[in-house]
Amino acid sequence: MQKTYKLHRPAPLSKKATTQHPKCNDVLFLHYKVQKKLLRKLVPKELELDNFDGDYWISIIGFEKVNSFSKLYDLNIRTYVKFNERAGVYNLKMERNGSLPWLLMKIKSKVFFKSENISNNRYLFETKNLKENSLIHIKYGIGKQIKIRSKLELWLTEHSTLYRGYKREVKKVNILQKPPNLRRLKPKYILVDYPKYLRVFSRPPNVMHYAERLVTYSINNN
Fold it and tell me: What is the pTM assigned to this prediction?
């Protein structure tokens, strides 16, 4: 197993006082290069845009989240940022199926938006947001395991900090992810129709991955 956390973590994080998040299954990663000028308009000015070898990225992450009480389907659209020199991810959009989970998460984090319908059956991920007139339809196959990930693949899929911006306030959440067992994603059909991000998603993704499971922990220290 590759020891990769140090790539995105300037100081070691304690493994004490951790909270495990519900496990994520059938995780899709679609990564798109984006122009810096376009991305800057989407991210709070308090956050510095991060890049990999001069390229800026936006990623679509779709997955099934399972806990002891329910099964939910999530969609995250995220990018990569820095705050006080610490690299992390910033969620541009977070959607979840069902009205009650959305209301609870909106009250708690103030960053969730309701999605009318999200489904994630293996080999097919769909989401529809009628309010925003947006649609994602991804039909795919699962390819070979990626035994040795490139530096770019590590950078896109492993970070130790999540930033949340709300009304000029930036909040930081320290996270620890078990390295995902990545596989190649073999696209059969991809439609990403988001008017707000039309200039980003009007072309095929540059990099794609699939992980059967993703385990994440929140760490209660700075």
Answer: 0.84
Share of the chain above pLDDT 70, in %: 76
Cβ contact 29:59 at 8 Å: yes
> Which CATH architecture is the domain 5-219 placed in?
Beta Barrel (2.40)
Amino acid at residue number 27: V
Give yes or no for residue 113 having a pLDDT over 50. no
Rounded CA separation 43/33 (Å): 15
* Sign, Cα dihedral of 202, 207, 210, 214: negative
Please state the domain extents for the chain: 5-219
Cα–Cα distance measured from residue 63 to residue 71, given in angstroms and rounded to the nearest whole number: 11
d(CA 72, CA 117): 11
Q: Is 68 exposed, middle or buried (0-12, 13-18, 19+ CB in 10 A)?
A: exposed
Contact 197, 43 (CB under 8 A): no
